[in-house]
Amino acid sequence: MTTRGATPDASSRQAFERFRELLARETGIVIDESKRYLVENRLGRLIVDEGLDGLEDVVKKMTSAGGREFKTRVIDVMTTNETQWFRDRYPFEALRQIILPELGGRTGSLRIWSAACSTGQEPYSLSMILEAYRQQSAQRVDARIVATDLSETALHQAREGIYDQFSILRGLDRAQRDRFFTPVDAKRWRVRDAVRRRVEFRRQNLLESFTGLGRFDVVFLRNVLIYFSQEVRQDILRRLTAQMNAGGYLVLGASESLGAMSSSFEMVRVPGGGIVYRRKA
Asked: What's the CA angle centered on 232, arms 229 and 237, to 5 degrees?
């Protein structure tokens, strides 16, 4: 389908630009002009299933009076990213070696936020660390994890806590699988109840207010800020910092930085490599 007076290629470029603007407005995610192939690849199956001609039809349906459900499906496709268990390792070593020994003795339950949790591997990895720490340490630690994502599809899978063999192999060894999972059938495993019940999953758009989530002692916001503009990144970090208790810890992705919010934190080096940030009083 083409716009009257425009060549097919020009019309396609215009549709891509409108899609980029719409996605940025709804999610804050900025897609580079060079990523058009990625957008078309991700939306390809949805376009075929809906009988659409291309991005122009996608934009029209997303913005139509009855397009809310379709828009949610498009956002799910565009925001669900690859993940794995104990990704990068050092953030989980920071939790085990630094954060829990320092904060675990606080009165009341320790509150941890796993933001942009995708299909649940990060918050369940955090819960596994907490479960092992509880069993091995003389220090009694009561902790709760709030895990959020924009994608309802990803959250549904995360709440189920069932993963296939391919997913299990991405970051887990056999000993961890046997300790923290129970087999569902020959090809799938479910996260054990002791690990699952520590995690609460909620839908959260990072562009919207965080106040309903409450305050946190630890926040994991990893490998997601890179998808936003600089202005949006700073707004997210500013609002996130306001929800953190003094002395709490923020964990970002290895390639991400605090920018203008760096004055609110002090840098803490993790044994073996890596950096986390402690909230100043």
From this structure: 125
